[in-house]
Structure to design on (415 residues):
């Protein structure tokens, strides 16, 4: 009894503490679910202090249902827009075609202009052929996802910084993989954590980049170069500092790498699941010359398409591309793989937005299209392929990834 008596004051404190925490939490929840009515803003739930609804958002992606986070809230609040709190920011989530827009001038660095892009086609073509010959054999168990990454990374090294030596590419690729793994990790900077490895890898990449950029700067000065050979040259000639360029290049690598390699991977996957579409794509691939003509066409389209989705007062705005692109209102039976739905006049403005919209719209979209088209053109005219595991699962971290890397068996195309 004595023991329990001496513990009583602690127990009482513990109970009081527990009740207070629960009370404060309920009060916070009650206050934060104001529905936005007071300021005529879209309805919202704020979630937990600081992290808001970040955890629900990340978990929905991890469980392979990234749209669930959105549909749960659109069902509850409004089909077009609601508010939430992600990563400490109060933001509005747009779930349909953006309505409010303003014309702005788009910024396209010289490197991504249509005229420049045309010069990359032979390089893309040559590198795609080289990669397919070197790495897509011996025709069994070829892992599409890692190999697509290898190709898009090597191409970026070549076009962004004129790096072609395989060892040097590998020296960038290794720390880059560690750094990107840390982008979505628990931010605990202790030895052994993913985050810690990413921070170290990030430092290493910056050092390597700084050395490379300084070397290229000296070359420009010594040789009095006036024509840029790559993206780094473009930026140096534009008067940017070495550190600024390093940061931009890291950003370009992050923006261009997983996006294009994931797209290539899923094109290979869908084509193998849908022979009727595969046959049409094969038929359509008359030659790389066709794509050459399209660059100019696509370039004009880019410069015109410069509308902006406006943020809401002080709130951050987050337009959910995923739910917009899968909205049955614009795309009947959205889960069905049916590229023919884009034929004719194509989708209504702002309903199909894989590259975003407005002044922040992906500046690399034509580069990405060319890179993907060139690679698929070479693949489909060289090989026939079949999935080794048609039931392979897809993980979302946060972009979709086939869990086994999409192994396929391939055979050379009969002549
Ligand atoms: C399939 C491939 C790609 C997809 C789906 C994609 C998609 C996107 C999206 C949705 C955005 C955000 C747009 C917004 O906020 O409205 C973006 C931004 C960006 N993308 Fe891409 N992208 C791809 C490839 C590329 C490539 C190849 C490059 C570079 C050569 C690139 C460079 C960038 C940059 C620099 C930004 C940031 C723009 C800014 O913050 O103003 N992307 N991309």
């Amino acid at each position: 009894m004595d023991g329990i008596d001496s513990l009583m004051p602690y127990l009482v404190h513990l109970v009081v503490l527990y009740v207070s925490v629960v009370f404060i939490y309920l009060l916070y929840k009650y206050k934060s679910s104001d529905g936005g009515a007071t300021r005529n803003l879209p309805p919202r739930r704020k979630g937990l202090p600081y992290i808001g609804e970040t955890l629900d958002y990340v978990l929905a992606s991890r469980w392979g249902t990234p749209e669930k986070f959105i549909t749960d809230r659109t069902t509850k609040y409004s089909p077009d827009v609601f508010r939430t709190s992600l990563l400490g920011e109060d933001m509005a989530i747009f779930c349909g075609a953006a309505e409010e827009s303003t014309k702005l001038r788009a910024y396209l660095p010289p490197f991504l202009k249509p005229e420049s892009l045309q010069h990359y086609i032979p390089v893309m073509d040559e590198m795609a052929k080289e990669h397919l010959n070197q790495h897509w054999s011996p025709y069994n168990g070829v892992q599409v996802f890692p190999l697509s990454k290898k190709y898009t990374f090597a191409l970026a090294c070549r076009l962004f910084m004129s790096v072609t030596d395989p060892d040097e590419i590998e020296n960038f690729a290794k720390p880059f993989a560690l750094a990107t793994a840390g982008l979505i990790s628990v931010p605990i900077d202790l030895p052994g954590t993913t985050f810690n490895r990413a921070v170290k890898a990030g430092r290493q990449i910056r050092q390597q980049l700084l050395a490379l950029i300084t070397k290229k700067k000296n070359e420009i000065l010594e040789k009095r170069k006036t024509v840029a050979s790559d993206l780094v040259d473009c930026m140096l000639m534009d008067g940017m500092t070495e550190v600024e360029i390093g940061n931009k290049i890291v950003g370009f690598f992050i923006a261009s790498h997983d996006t294009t390699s994931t797209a290539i991977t899923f094109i290979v996957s869908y084509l193998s699941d849908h022979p009727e579409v595969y046959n049409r794509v094969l038929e359509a691939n008359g030659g790389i010359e066709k794509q050459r003509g399209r660059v100019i066409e696509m370039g004009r389209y880019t410069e015109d398409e410069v509308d902006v989705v406006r943020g809401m007062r002080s709130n951050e705005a987050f337009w959910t591309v995923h739910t917009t692109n899968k909205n049955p209102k614009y795309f009947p039976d959205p889960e069905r793989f049916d590229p023919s739905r884009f034929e004719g006049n194509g989708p209504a403005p702002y309903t199909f937005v894989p590259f975003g919209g407005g002044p922040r719209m992906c500046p690399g979209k034509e580069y990405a299209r060319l890179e993907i088209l060139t690679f698929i053109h070479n693949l489909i005219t060289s090989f026939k392929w079949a999935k080794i595991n048609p039931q392979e699962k897809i993980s979302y971290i946060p972009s979709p990834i086939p869990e086994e890397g999409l192994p396929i068996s391939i055979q050379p195309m009969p002549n």
Summary: The chain is about 55% helix and 10% strand. The longest helix spans residues 242-273. The beta strands are 81-86, 89-94, 142-143, 316-319, 383-387, 394-396, 400-402, 407-412. Residues 381 and 413 are 7 Å apart (CA to CA).
